[in-house]
Amino acid sequence: MPHKALAATALTLNAFVWGVSWWPFRALQDHGLHPLWATAIIYVFALLCLLVFRPRAWQGFLKHPLLWLLVLASGLTNVGFNWAVTVGDVVRVVLLFYLMPAWVVLLAWPLLGEKPTTGSMLRLALALTGVVIVLKTPASPWPVPESLADWLALMGGFSFALTNILLRRLNQTPGESRMLAMFGGGAVMATGVALIGMALGVVAAPPAPGVAWAGLALFISLAFLVGNLALQYGAARLSASATSLIMLSEVVFASVSSVVLGTGELSTRTLLGGALILMASLLAVVSFGKR
pTM above the 0.85 mark? Predict the structure, then answer.
């Protein structure tokens, strides 16, 4: 029992780190460091730490080429989420990011051979209804993404669903190889997109080294590393349904912290749409736990 309580605490810590990560990303942007460069720094740091302790982690890529797709999916997850929470309404971004039931229904069939059931289609309908309510504003005639943050959140959420499905497909591969794929994806994809953004004039170059932003970047790098280790520990000791349920607390951490600090909005429309999205996610967790 104590082990399960410690595992649940570890998962809650991971959800807390991700839920409040918008604040240091915005603080770094105030220092002139774009969230893409901040993401690159975080994952280069994590990657180096992993390779110091697991220098042979790369060998898994020789036997399991699908890990390269995990690099892409995990990297785009971080690009989408970290950029979106820095420039958009945090509550709205997190809700759109957690559109997991919809993406899982669409991806699980071709990648896992899991055909949609009546229950999964109901969850899909609930989630999509919630998204329509969140996106449909009085100023918008159609419920379509209205900003860069919306598009990034949806892209990040889709990539997050793909990441989770790939982790299920690759559950027999060495754990250090999966971690290498996820850390490497964050480092490579963030750097690549940042360089493309610089060429297009939409991403600023990193600022000159400074104690203020470098110290904050080191702090958030350590926080993400600890959070990932906590996720690995907790997920290995609790059921997948319990893990998914606890990780949904990220929505609470993000929403409460952003509203308290004045960077998020809890309108009636957002609350109603968010309730439907979270209900779909909870039903997915319950359904998975019964298998």
Answer: yes
